[in-house]
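Student: Please help interpret what follows.
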Amino acid sequence: MFDQINPLLEFMLAVSPQVSDLNFSVGRAPQVEISGELREVPIKGLKALTPYQTEQIALQLLRGDRHLIRKLLKQGSADLSHSIPGKTRFRVNIFSQRGTYSIVLRVIPNGVPTIEELGLPPQLNQVAEERNGIVLLTGPTGSGKSTTLAAIINRINMDKAYHIVTIEDPIEYLHRHRRATINQRELGADVPSFALALRAALRQAPKVILVGEMRDLETTEIALEAAETGHLVLSTLHTIDASKTVDRIIGIFPKNEEQQIRTRFSQTFKWIVSQRLVPKADGSRRLAVCEVLRTSERTRDYIQHGESEMEGKSLLDAMNDGALDGMQTFDHELERLWREGEVSLETAISFATNAPNLALKMSGIAAAGAETRHPVAAAPGAETPQKGPQAAKPAGGKPAGTPPLGPDLGVDIKDLME
């Protein structure tokens, strides 16, 4: 009975090759996300999902796993993975809202991508050469942090004969043993928490440890210890840029430990890569735009002493001046992409860290360019074409025969707890 969900998921994926998420919410038809926007998928019998229907979908995805059901009931949400054999995999989150259940499935591309395939800065390949320290991937939810980490692990796997331990919630990309030996542990199925798994990893002789997220003080403390004892630790944080990442790490610890943590973190961090997904000007897909902070004498000094004590200078200044070391800022990359016609002016400004400054700079560039190309003023009333992301159109036509959700399961989620 639990296999009936896969035809529905396949039907939704067929809307477009650019589908990144599937969304099931009460009161709406099933939806897919394409280039950052939700679009309804008309399906017979599912015009507006009922609480009963979303609960049945949740049940089919949970597959009777009592641990996940208990977590959903006690904590209000549960993370898991789901696969359509031979086709695709999903990272799934089921959560309660106003007494009903909603489900979001993130599409995990087949195979492990490379840094080049993702269009990431080529200097990220150098992370594979690090022997110890902390590497952090940061950004908002859905910005591709896990995918970028998978690409970095893939590079290490291809180049180094290391033991790699990953701790994930849930496991997304499945890594095969190449030169490296990779053991992947999943929260819930293999270990109860990041902190316990990370502490255990120190006794498992890994060279590289991937921690899905540094969520709390204990996990962050153990990660620092691991980096200080010769391990390369990779993890993620939900912060918007490099400066906020440093503040978040420092802020996790008690105030009376601030200077000690600043010193420890300044000596152990190797890279902080902040990522945002920005729609292309033609609306075809989204680009990964990265801010990159690397360890250097200057950046270590700024972190150790705090930007407020550095006479008005900041980590942003260090990144602007550190191009030769592979550092870059969001706003510089957005300006470059705009110059190359990859993103529109409006998009670049809306995603900028300092939107007023970037707008002023780009308007000056645009005005100078227009004056050079067209020294004579345009005729009154003439329209100026503007770039802007265009909504990708869903593929036309539906497969014959809309797949049913399956038989009435005749069971409530709470019944499985008995």
Notes: The radius of gyration is 24 Å. Residues 375-411 have pLDDT under 50 and may be disordered. DSSP finds 13 helices and 13 strands in the chain.
